Amino acid sequence: MKILVLCLIALAIADKYDQFRAFDEDEFGRTLIDTLQMQMSTGEPIARFIEIMRNLETSIENEQKEDDKANNEYQNQCTEDIKVLQQESANLERRTVEIQSILDELEPLRSYKQGQADAKNAWKIETEKKLADLVKKRETEKAAFDKKVEEHDYATFVIETVRRMFSDKSQSFLQLNNESQWQKVRDYFINASEQAKKFEIKKSYSKIFNVLAEIASSAQSEDFQNSPTVNRIVNLCDLMLKQIEDSKALETKAEQKRLNMFMLEKGNFDKDLTSLNNALAQLNAAILGLDNRIQDQKRDLTDYNARLSAKNKQSEDRGGECREKAYNYQLTREKREQKRQLVSQIIGAFSANQRDFSEYVKLRGQAGDFRGKNFQILGNPTED
Prior knowledge:
The chain is an all-alpha fold. The protein has helices at 2-12, 18-25, 27-42, 46-167, 179-196, 205-218, 228-352, 354-367, and strands at residues 370-371, 374-375. The radius of gyration is 66 Å and the shape is rod-shaped. Residues 1-22 form the signal peptide.
């Protein structure tokens, strides 16, 4: 019966208590009404509750002021920190631009120097080839000259030997009717002729030696002391020796001319190679210096780019912290403002409708709790 009565009362006054019930639906509002209910249950004056609520409202406002101040200081510090970080990033970025500008100058210069070095090196290789060809040609000329000298000297030796045989009238082996000795002379000429056939240049000496052999054969029957053939051979030998000497002198003169020309050309090549080697040494040193500078600049650029990336990340992280802090501050401010407004509304409602509010609190206490438009009775459901 008691339960029915309470339900009817609740329905009758539902509209009257809508505002109070709205306070009760909020967790913080319910806590405040619980506080009012405790105040009423202890018999303390209602004015004490109003004082507590006003103190609570003032406390909330003071907390918000302190929070506003702390947030302003924090956000100002954020602004200063981000400004410093952005300036540091700008300095790093400016330095990377400067380094890249240096690289943009050094790398084309290095390519230009390398092109010069490649051209000089190609010229050097060509010069060395020409010098090698010149030396090879000179070696060939020298070998040919030496061969000519060898053939001239051999012919001179043969003819001088023959001349001594015929000019020395005391030679007993050439006396009349000394057949074996004359045969030796003929054999000597024939052997010399065979040797001369192997000559690479003066092959005509072979025929000359054959003629001498024939002359010597015809002189065998003559008186050695008064033989015209012998005199003819001696004169012929003198003539041939003079011709050989003249020929050798001409060959020597031509050889000296070739040698002089070789030395002149070789000297020019040597000068060119010396100049090229000096130029290449300077270019290679310049290229090495540029390589070292380029490597240093690239290393610095990598370092500054890494520092710039880290600084940008630091600035971004700091900005994220500040934004998160501002977001949390705004949420806290809104919640605190809701609480302050709720306290203010409860104070206003209680002050304006103290009797109705007190009845609502008593009714709420009798029901044990209140949700929406219905009381939930926490007592024994079997009680009358």
